[in-house]
């Protein structure tokens, strides 16, 4: 992620803004997914929302699973938004399919953006 941020800083301002907006909307979508899925996941893990975590049985495993699901939710949110953006850019013939896939899943920018 640090590498992607450093590469983003080298882009022209126009593309820095586009990438920032795509990322922020993706993180927002990921947070919405966290809110939607964490309460049912916590319930499945036997977590009582009225008790502090340290008083729960198997709280360490529950915390680990919740943190993993948070990271996955944010990644999925960013991939959904970046994928939609990439699809539009492919339709407009601004991205090739390979560039769209690299941008969507690995945050690699098209070569045309670095000019």
* Oligomer description: single chain
End-to-end gap: 22 Å
Strand content: under 5%
Number of helices: 4
In sequence order, what are the helices and strands, one letter per element? HHHH
Tell me the layout of helices and strands.
Blueprint: H1 2-9, H2 13-44, H3 59-91, H4 97-106
Can you walk me through this structure?
With 115 residues, the protein is mainly α. Helices cover 72% and strands 0% of the residues. The chain has one domain (22-108). The chain contains 4 helices and no strands. The two termini are 22 Å apart.
Task: Output the keywords.
single chain, about 120 residues, elongated
What's this model, at a glance?
The chain is an all-alpha fold and 115 residues long. It has helices at 2-9, 13-44, 59-91, 97-106. The radius of gyration is 18 Å and the shape is elongated.
């Amino acid at each position: 992620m640090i590498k992607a941020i450093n590469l983003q800083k080298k882009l022209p301002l126009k593309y820095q803004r586009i990438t920032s907006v795509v990322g922020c909307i993706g993180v927002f979508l990921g947070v919405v997914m966290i809110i939607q899925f964490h309460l049912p996941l916590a319930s499945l893990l036997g977590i009582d929302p009225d008790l502090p975590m340290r008083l729960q049985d198997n709280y360490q495993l529950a915390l680990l699973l919740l943190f993993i699901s948070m990271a996955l939710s944010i990644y999925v949110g960013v991939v959904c938004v970046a994928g939609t953006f990439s699809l539009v850019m492919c339709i407009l013939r601004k991205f090739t399919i390979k560039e769209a896939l690299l941008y969507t899943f690995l945050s690699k920018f098209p070569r045309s953006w670095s000019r």
